[in-house]
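Table 4 source record.
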Amino acid sequence: TTRLVSLMAGPLAKIIAQAVATGTQIVIKAFVQSYQVAARNAAAGHGAAEQAGQDISHRLSRQMHVEEARKVLDVEGVVSREQIDKRYEPMFKANSAEKGGSFYIQSKIYRAREALSHRNRRTRGSRKRWRRECGLEAWS
């Protein structure tokens, strides 16, 4: 009986390994396909798919969302570069390691400034579009 069990264990282990490998390939392929569809839909501007695509690209690029950046720097609506810097400087200095601050919080403050500054640069050419993207004007 011991020999019979050992003979069955070899083929059984091989079948289990093949099943796990196949299952893993299926899951990876499905993930890649769904990401590609979401990215395509986001590029085409399809509402929720666009938001999902932005969420994925923000996570992959490690860039902070504008809404989170506004909360971190405690600003609302459209803000100028001067307003961003006015909020950023004291918060960044107060959280420095030399003053016993938190590097994590300091990096959040830095990323918030970066996200809002990036938004300003990207939309500088069209003030109306910028206000619309920030939710200050309804879409026409």
